[in-house]
Specification:
The structure holds 2 protein chains of 2 kinds. Chain A is 46% helix and 23% strand. In chain A, strands 2-9-8-4-5 form a 5-stranded mixed β-sheet, with no helix packed on it. Chain A is elongated, with a radius of gyration of 31 Å. The two termini of chain A are 43 Å apart. About 14% of the residues of chain A have low confidence. By secondary structure, chain B is mainly α. The chains are: A alpha+beta, B mainly alpha. At the A-B interface, helix 1, helix 2, helix 3, helix 4 and helix 5 of A face helix 1, helix 2, helix 4, helix 5 and helix 6 of B.
Chain lengths: 278, 181
């Protein structure tokens, strides 16, 4: 059974930092958000409402101050504010495309007249107006048909690409290289990929620190390096780490893994191919 | 203070002895704790998360009952937040500026992408987004009441609009990145 979600007003106070002095309520809500994904989504939706009200200028001065001094500090929220402004501009411009200013102005003036004057006015201009509205409706209907046809064609030709995850996972085995005539694994990354999580399976009995270097086959440069300790389990030893994708482009790369000291140092390679998808 | 590869490896091992499971647990803990720091109005949630993991890694050996890693990390994260808050209170609030409004020229590529992304929404989502965002003032209040009633209540409307906007935001980000390349 789903637990009852808190009222949006309580969530709003929480997001504006006003529950920070009421520890019991604040802790209770923080813990609920941590473990309840439905509530976490509701909290994010209330967060967007606050941002919308800030953009619209409908917040009272106290809330506005709380938004500027507290709520908008995280970069993620600044980005949401920027997007909310973009949305507002976009839909405002579409609204002005749709409203006929002549009709709007006429309607405003009409309210100022006495009812009798309105009747006379209606009688004289009614026929013309109705005819004009009918023509406009027909024209809008034609535009709507065109828009629907255009949407159907766009939807068929360019379906929404599924979102790429922010992390990609790559599992490698040492010794798997093109020179050994073995197929190498490949990984796809996109603009949304922030980090690549890498797992390298080590030979049995591999203990102690390992030097790991990531080299580009094309430029022969080291794009990342670290000294790592293997994770040892009954299944064997592995290196598990994450690499930022900043310097990774399409092409062949290899992890060079060295262990031991001085003359006993051994180095093995694991190659993989990166395909950068748009 | 950045999270070192060694600390990251120890943290993963602590989360689970199974590597795949450890990575999955890590992503889940990270998402929830970064979100906690965002909700608390922290200006660098990622760094505070890294700080939390560093502290947790230092305490792994002395952790007696660690059957709930998320709960343990959350406890540490609260302490990190309290410390941040003490430091934040000492800051001069005049230093905090709301982000500047971008110019139309700066927005142009995003507006083009937004138009395309709105077109790619399903017809019902596009209709809802348009009706939700189009109106102003009293008219807006009436329209939103009607929409909430159609969808089964204000929370249902909030969630539906939130998901549409999230899709649009992700779509615009990807579209702008593609257009820059």
């Amino acid at each position: 059974m789903k637990s009852r979600l808190p009222e949006p007003e309580v969530i709003r106070q929480y997001l504006l930092g006003r529950l920070n002095e009421q520890e019991e309520l604040e802790v209770q809500l923080s813990e609920q958000i941590l473990s309840n994904d439905d509530l976490a989504e509701l909290v994010e939706s209330v967060e967007e409402e606050i941002i919308d009200q800030y953009v619209d200028g409908t917040l009272d001065p106290t809330d506005r101050k709380a938004v500027e001094a507290y709520f908008l500090r995280p970069p993620e929220r600044k980005e949401k504010l920027r997007f909310a402004r973009l949305l507002r501009g976009y839909f405002d411009s579409r609204t002005s495309d749709l409203v006929d200013p002549v009709v709007a102005q006429w309607a405003t003036r009409f309210r100022a007249y006495w009812p009798a004057a309105a009747l006379i006015l209606l009688a004289t201009v009614g026929a013309t107006y109705i005819s004009r509205v009918s023509r406009r409706e027909a024209s809008l209907e034609a535009q709507l048909m065109q828009e629907r046809a255009r949407f159907a064609s766009v939807a068929n030709s360019t379906p929404l690409r599924p979102m790429q995850p922010a992390m990609s996972v790559l599992t490698l085995v040492l010794g798997r290289t093109r020179s050994a005539r073995l197929p190498i694994p490949h990984i796809e990354i996109s603009h949304s990929t922030k980090r690549v999580i890498v797992e390298i399976v080590l030979p049995t009995g591999a203990f102690g620190p390992h030097e790991v270097r990531l080299e580009s086959d094309e430029t022969k440069t080291v794009v990342w390096s670290a000294r790592l300790l293997p994770l040892v389990s009954p299944d064997g030893a592995r290196l598990l780490f994450d690499v930022p994708d900043e310097n990774i482009k399409s092409g062949i790369y290899s992890f060079k893994v060295s262990s031991g000291d001085g003359p006993t140092t051994t180095t093995q390679n694991a190659e993989f191919q990166v395909r950068f998808i748009e | 203070m950045a999270l070192t590869p060694e600390a990251f490896g120890r943290f993963l091992r602590w989360l689970s002895s199974d590597d795949q499971q450890a990575v999955s647990e890590y992503l889940s803990v990270r998402k929830r704790l970064v979100r906690f720091f965002v909700h608390k109005g922290c200006d660098d949630p990622d760094t505070l998360f890294d700080k939390t993991v560093d502290i947790v890694v230092g305490k792994i050996e002395e952790c007696i009952d660690c059957s709930n890693p998320l709960g343990y990390c959350y406890g540490v994260a609260r302490n990190v937040w309290r410390k941040y808050r003490r430091e934040y209170k000492a800051m001069d609030p005049i230093d905090i500026d709301p982000p500047a409004r971008p110019t139309d020229q700066e927005n142009e590529p995003e507006l083009k992408c937004l138009e395309r992304c709105v077109d790619l929404l399903s017809p019902s989502d596009r209709d809802l987004a348009t009706r939700y965002h189009r109106h102003q003032g009293r008219n807006k209040i009436e329209v939103r009441k009607a929409l909430a009633s159609e969808l089964g209540g204000p929370n249902a409307l909030r969630i539906r609009v939130f998901r549409i906007r999230k899709n649009l935001r992700d779509c615009v980000v990807n579209c702008v990145k593609r257009s820059l390349n």
